[in-house]
Amino acid sequence: MDMRNRWASGDGIQARATWEPPASPLHMEPLSIVLSKLLDAAAKALDVDHEQSRALLRRASTLLQSGAEPCDLTARAPARAALAPWLAKRVERHIDDNLERSLRLGELAKVAGLSNSYFSRAFKGAFGEPPHAFILRRRVARARMEMLGGEEPLAQIAVACGFADQAHLARIFRRETGSAPSAWRLANRRAVEPARVAPRASGLAPEVRHDLAI
Known about the structure:
The chain is built from twelve helices and no strands.
């Protein structure tokens, strides 16, 4: 016989007297589990103790509105690890100064004076991505500068920027920019070259040519 029928049949007084909220402790449990237990208890109490049911619902509503795990019910989440700004600059400078060679996690962690595991978390907290992804992006940026600033072949630029070979450069470059290195170089060199040669078109400085035109 369910609670509603017991109340209708005269057993409601006994049900009201013997019903209690769940005895299992709610501390150290996720907020979702705590809310589930509170709502379940409120539903069970609805037919036998309206005041108790309302109290449970108010408690669940308070937890939902807080938007955070209450300190008396769950453990606090640990603070996110992140490198201090001065330490992040030191690591970034070390990466930029050594892009042409292999850079391992242990080496970077040693530069920061941290363990490998903590450094990995702290690096991501400071730069928003893991060390490996950050290094690849810096290598692509260096390769772009080299492609615009000189005439070296792509194979040479790839090795100078720390890629295994030209194919490795091409694969990462396309993933980062959406273009092949050769196509990107051609398109951007066309945009840069006119600006470089225009001041020397007549062999005179721009301001001198301007005066002559007047």
